[in-house]
Design a protein that fits this description.
heterodimer, A: alpha/beta, Rossmann fold, B: mainly alpha
Chain lengths: ~150, ~80
Amino acid sequence: MVNRVDFYMISGIDNQARLQFACKLTSKARSLNNSVYLFAKDLQESEQLDDMLWNQEASGFIGHGLKNQEFDQLQPVLIGQDANPGKSFDLFINLTDNMPVEVENNQRVAEILHQAPDCLTPGRERYKIYKTICKNNNSELNYHELG
Amino acid sequence: MMNNQIPMLTDIIEPGDSDKSGVHRTKIKAETITTALTDDNLNQKIEHAIDAALPVIKRQLHQQLLSALSKDDNQ
């Protein structure tokens, strides 16, 4: 059951900033030993996230892999384009404009939005859906505006 | 880490990655070791080579770890 949903609104309309913030969240989650699923919109974005995570700070190490590749079920951080990652994660980060199916199997959900209308409009729709889910589950729904 | 465990850059860089890192193409031309070690340009090249190699090392180490864990699980 999902215990907490966080919406993060970043300034600007830069999708790259959205991905960078996702990497930061992943890094923070890993420092707490949490498993993470990054739900990317397509293969290109998955590969971009893969590169970004390996290129995080030089002394840092965020072990991760892509879904449907070798050892994907062992990955502490998995990147994929499937709404359903196949197992539950401590943190599910949605980088698509869709409502992930069976998202409630994960402990926490992070939605990262930027200011472009094609990102904001579906994001608002998802917020309404999460509001109902959180109300029914008695779980937290937070909204963070980032500078 | 023992010296013989430190991976060689040329072993680490996978085919196709040379374009990204330029490691394969970096040719060190110096009259003597002293001039080479005091050459800022060379230091910069080495720094770039390290920056390019680190993600590849991280990726390989992670694969090795998962491979070992997977073998443990299967035993």
